[in-house]
Write the structure tokens for this entry.
Amino acid sequence: MDASPRFRPALGFRSLTPLYDPLLRWVMREEAFKRRLIEQASVAAGQRVLDLGCGTGTLTIRIKRAHPQAYVVGLDPDPEILERARRKARRSGLALAFDQGFASSLPYRDGLFDRVLASMMMHHLDRETRRAALAEVWRVLAPGGELHVVDFGQPRTAPMRLLAPLVARLEEAADLIHGLLPRMLEEAGFVVASRQGFATALGPLEFVKAVPAPNTVD
């Protein structure tokens, strides 16, 4: 029997995978929120960066373009979407690595990465898988490392509060809409260093920067 974790294809169905990039680009203000995430991460030359749940590799490529002296790797469980990412990377001419694997069981040694970025992937994970993924991120972060997340967040305006029940039905987004991500980060051994909102047509996003709590670092 196959004991591998299950994953949801982009947008929930393989038939919708070709729509993933256009949806992010036109509905979710992809260029703006990914640029902001990269700026927030403040990657330095020589640092090792993991794009967790990299999807079609858009963010992975953007990180490498912005920081050519960094080592950047994207990870995703979906072989079909990874092949799209590799084709995009080849067209870009950038030296990038893409690995197949699960966020809840990262195929990397302890303390390998200086930065882990997670863009619109936490809402794909159920609560227990999300907890396991955060524990794995904590494990693979080097001393001084940082986790940077952008995903659905709590509504802060009346229109967003009206839209929130619809967004909460998207896969496993309810915990994020209800503001539980910071608590889950703290349970995994992180300190939330900053939280900022960002509006899109499909609902509010939240940027979270988290670092390992001082008493959890070896």
About this structure: Residues 49 and 72 are 5 Å apart (CA to CA). Residues 79-92 form the longest helix (14 residues). The beta strands are 48-52, 71-76, 97-100, 113-119, 141-152, 190-200, 203-212.
